[in-house]
Amino acid sequence: MKKEDKQQFTRRITQANPTELVVILYEMLLCYLEDANTALAESETDSREAGSFHEAVRNARGCLNELLYSLDLNYEPAPTLQRLYLFCLRRLARGEQRCDAGPLEEIKRVIAPLSDAYRKISDQNSAGPVMENPQTVYAGLTYGRNTLTENLADQGLNRGILA
Q: Is the pLDDT of residue 128 over 90?
């Protein structure tokens, strides 16, 4: 994942409601799976990319674990989602073990429709952002031609949490 993507996800997380956070996790997972596929394709020509593949898989596993642990199994469809996430974790482990892109594609086929469904649901969720005191980001054009820089305003010590 590129630095710009990480910054974009970070910005979105600070303004996201609970449903949007799930959408962001799905998008991050799909991004890491794409990174793993790219690293796997490049590792055939450059052995240094094998480490990038394993790192991308580890990050994808982190997203899946976060989705799994955030489920409240007392409500539907949490038990079904739990089975899907466990399936994805098993396929991810198999893909990493065999350095095979096939299982990663299976995970994408499972996660992409879930991401689309949660994106539609997130539009209907009127809850406010989860973070109540996020850091403010100001962006604007600087002296460089067509370059965009970010200036972070000092928000004090209790950014994103209440003291």
A: no
C-alpha to C-alpha distance for 79 and 75, rounded to whole angstroms: 8
pLDDT in tens, 20-59: 999 999 999 999 999 999 988 887 666 666 788 899 999 9
| Reported pTM | 0.78
The span from the CA of 57 to the CA of 89, in Å, is 10
C-alpha closest to that of 66 among 87, 94, 85:
85
Residues 18-51 as b or e (16 or more Cβ within 10 Å = b): ebbbbbbbbbbbbbbbebbbebbeebeeeeebee
Distance of alpha carbon 85 from the chain centroid: 14
Distance CA 145, CA 73 (A): 52
In the block, tokens 């969720």 appear at 125
As a whole number of angstroms, the distance between CA 78 and CA 62 comes to 18
Of the two residues 158 and 77, the one the predictor is more confident about is 77
Percentage of residues of the chain with pLDDT beyond 90: 45
Q: Cα–Cα distances in Å, from 60 out to 15, 66, 96, 134, 142?
A: 22, 10, 11, 25, 35
